[in-house]
């Protein structure tokens, strides 16, 4: 078993990137898959969203900068059935600290190497930027998921992201593949959401069929330190992320 690495990336904030990373990881964990979530965002939102306080414990900063063994940086989240490499405030300086480092774009890939045979999936939640941390994630990953919110100017910035993906593919990671674009915050009551969804599908044919609805419970769950599967397991959002998990398994060739 060698882990399939999936990175959630969009330099635009507020698109449901972290929520989707946490929710998809939790969905696959509940289906019995062995999964690891890596919080590569200095804001630590994925860490806090599943009830972990990243301060004072080893995390992704230690693995990247101090080159600590990745096993010592993993926290087990029993309630969600998954493992986490947490983030904390120390990571905010990592971009600067990595600049003079040898093979700086490959630090994350090297850090994850010892656990590649211990998980089926490793999910990486990136910061909302295209800096060195995100480049590390794109160099270490096989697949990219791009969350896009169903709101005005949804496609803004995606051309720059596509250019970055092409650069990484040419120079650092020839196997980098866009697994799909994920439509989030879809409001069934508005015509705008449908128009945006149609426009995104026109530009990106590999958009996932699954659409994540705009839901109050989904936005509330992180403040309670729970995934949607603990906070509202029978709701529309949990159903959507279960469907997304199944769609992902089909796209990467794993039997559902």
Describe what you observe in this structure:
This protein is of the alpha/beta class. The chain has eleven helices and eight strands. It has helices at residues 17-30, 45-49, 60-64, 94-98, 107-112, 132-140, 158-171, 191-203, 216-220, 228-231, 236-251; strands at 4-8, 35-39, 75-77, 82-85, 121-125, 143-149, 177-186, 211-213. Strands 3-4-2-5-1-6-7-8 form an eight-stranded mixed β-sheet, sandwiched between helices. The protein is globular.
Count of DSSP E strands?
8
| SSE sequence, one letter per element | EHEHHEEHHEHEHEHEHHH
What is the SS-derived class? alpha/beta
Radius of gyration: 17 Å
Mean pLDDT, as a whole number?
A: 93
The portion of residues forming beta strands comes to: 15-25%
The termini sit apart by: 17 Å
How many separate helices?
11
Runs in which pLDDT lies below 50 for 5 or more consecutive residues are none
CA-based shape: globular
Helix content: 25-40%
| Main pleated sheet | 8 strands, mixed
The largest beta-sheet arranges its strands as 3-4-2-5-1-6-7-8
Give me the oligomer status.
Answer: single chain
List the helices and strands and how they pair.
Elements: E1 4-8, H1 17-30, E2 35-39, H2 45-49, H3 60-64, E3 75-77, E4 82-85, H4 94-98, H5 107-112, E5 121-125, H6 132-140, E6 143-149, H7 158-171, E7 177-186, H8 191-203, E8 211-213, H9 216-220, H10 228-231, H11 236-251
Parallel strand pairs: 1-5, 1-6, 2-4, 2-5, 6-7, 7-8
Antiparallel strand pairs: 3-4
């Amino acid at each position: 078993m060698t882990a399939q690495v999936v990175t959630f990336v969009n330099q635009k904030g507020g698109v449901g990137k972290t929520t989707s990373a946490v929710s998809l990881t939790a969905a696959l964990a509940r289906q019995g898959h062995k999964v690891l979530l890596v919080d590569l965002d200095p804001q630590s939102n994925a860490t806090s969203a599943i009830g972990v306080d990243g301060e004072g414990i080893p995390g992704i900063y230690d693995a990247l900068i101090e080159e600590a063994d990745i096993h010592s940086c993993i926290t087990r989240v029993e309630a969600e059935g998954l493992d986490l490499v947490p983030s904390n405030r120390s990571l905010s300086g990592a971009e600067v600290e990595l600049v003079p480092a040898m093979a700086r774009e490959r630090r994350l890939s090297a850090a994850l190497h010892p656990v590649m045979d211990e998980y089926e999936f490793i999910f990486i939640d990136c910061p909302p930027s295209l800096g060195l941390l995100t480049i590390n994630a794109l160099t270490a990953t096989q697949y990219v998921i791009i969350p896009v919110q169903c709101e005005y100017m949804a496609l803004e910035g995606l051309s720059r992201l596509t250019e970055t993906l092409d650069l990484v593919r040419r120079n650092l990671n020839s196997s980098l593949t866009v697994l799909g674009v994920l439509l989030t915050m879809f409001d069934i009551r508005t015509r705008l959401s449908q128009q945006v969804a149609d426009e995104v599908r026109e530009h990106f044919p590999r958009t996932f069929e699954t659409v994540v609805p705009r839901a109050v419970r989904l936005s509330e769950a992180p403040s309670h330190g729970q995934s949607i599967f603990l906070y509202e397991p029978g709701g529309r959002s949990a159903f959507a992320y279960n469907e997304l998990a199944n769609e992902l398994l089909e796209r990467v060739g794993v039997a559902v």
